[in-house]
Structure formats: structure tokens, C-alpha cells
Amino acid sequence: MNGTSAAGDAAVLRVSEIFHSLQGESTRVGLPTVFVRLTGCPLRCVWCDTTYAFAGGEALPLAAVIARVAAFGCATVCVTGGEPLAQKACLPLLTALCDAGYAVSLETSGALDIGGVDARVARIVDIKAPDSGEAAKNRWENLALLTPRDELKLVLASAADYAWAKDVLQERRLDQLCTVLFSPVQGSLAPAQLAEWILRDRLPVRFQLQLHKLLWGNERAR
């Protein structure tokens, strides 16, 4: 893997954690991945399971982040949060990871502009359903920027969320933009119920569960 540029070396990120695990979501589910979790998020979703990343963390130069990622010897990296795009240095981090030869994905809330993200990055954009409490912050302009390499994720907590998601899927033709993932909120919507609705309505989406929670539960992210 190659090093970062001089400009990249000057960037500083606030990082909650960097760890090696199996990807628990998206079409990359099950793939060994290094996760770079950046600190901070402007949203407060009701069902958020990473509230510890809202504050704190460690200030690290970009070069130090790249070095920690390299130590795991894994070719796949996911930059997540919090909301990673809330930090301006996220963009040079993504580019540096791509330049270093990694297969890179970005998990973002969809409330912020994804236009500046390096084209080599697979963007996993989370559209917020009403029960999240943050649906008003969806940045619909992002849809026009999506490519087939990107993915849309909708996390659903109720029948009302599902009805809303189905309408959005059809009205905005989300499945023609990229892969669409429907996921149930643990403890709020039974996975089998969501699966049955998807099959009943013949939706062109992929059902997903959070693999890491099935393996290790809520107390262990990895």
C-alpha cells in the first residue's frame, strides 16, 4: 500500500475507533473489513446504536489513521460514524485510502452532500424513515449523484415506516439508481414481518439484518 500525500498528511481527524471485523451490513456483508469510525454526528436518530461516537474520540493526523488501517493487513475499509462527512478531513481520508489501494466504502446518513466523495468510494447512503425522528433532514439532492456502485439503506421501525419507504421507493424509483436495502430496527420491527411485507409487495429491494449483532450481540460491535 502506498503512503499519503503531503496535503493528506496535514489533515487531522477525530476518530472514535479503528477496528477489524466482519462487515455486518450492505452487499459487502460478511467481508473482513477495517472500520474507521469518525466522531461526531449532527443527527439524533431515535434508534441509534453508536451514540458513543457523538463526542470524544482521538485527534489523529491522516497519516496515522492510514498507518493504523495498514497494520490490520486487510484490503477492505469502511469509513463510518457518527456521520463521517461532518468532518471536512473525511474527504481527503477517503481519497488517501483509495490511493493506497484499498476497496473503500462510506456509511453516511444522507443528510449531507455526498458530491465531494472520491468516485472510487462506494457510498452507502442511509435514508431516514419517519420513526427515526430525522426524516426531515434527508438530502434528496443526493439521489441524483448516486451510481450503480452505491447503495441506499432504509432502516425501518414500524408498519408506518415500511409504508413510507415503499412509497419513496416507487415514487423516486430508487431501485433504478442502485441497490436498495431494507433493514428492521432491532427490538422494534420483527425481521420476519419485514421479510413478509417485502415478499407480499414484491419489492425490488434486498432484506438485511445486522450480522455483527447476530454474532456478538449489542454489547460487542466486533
Percentage of residues assigned to helices: 10-25%
* Uncertain runs: 1-7
User: What is the strand arrangement across the widest sheet?
Assistant: 3-1-2-4-5-6-7-8-9
Average per-residue pLDDT, rounded, comes to 93
Amino-to-carboxy terminus distance: 25 Å
**Quaternary organisation of the protein chains:** single chain
Strand segment count: 9
Q: What would you give as the CATH superfamily?
A: Aldolase class I
The whole-angstrom Rg is: 17 Å
Please provide a written account of the structure.
By secondary structure, the chain is an alpha/beta fold. The chain has a single domain (6-216), classed as Alpha-Beta Barrel (TIM Barrel), CATH 3.20.20.70. It has helices spanning 6-10, 62-70, 90-99, 159-171, 191-201, 211-216; strands spanning 12-22, 32-38, 58-61, 76-80, 103-108, 122-128, 151-156, 179-184, 206-207. A 9-stranded mixed sheet has the order 3-1-2-4-5-6-7-8-9.
Chart the SSEs and their pairings:
Elements: H1 6-10, E1 12-22, E2 32-38, E3 58-61, H2 62-70, E4 76-80, H3 90-99, E5 103-108, E6 122-128, E7 151-156, H4 159-171, E8 179-184, H5 191-201, E9 206-207, H6 211-216
Parallel strand pairs: 2-4, 4-5, 5-6, 6-7, 7-8, 8-9
Antiparallel strand pairs: 1-2, 1-3
Fill in the keyword field for this structure.
TIM Barrel, 222 residues, globular, alpha/beta, 9-stranded mixed sheet
Give the structure's gist in a few sentences.
By secondary structure, the protein is α/β, with parallel strands linked by helices.
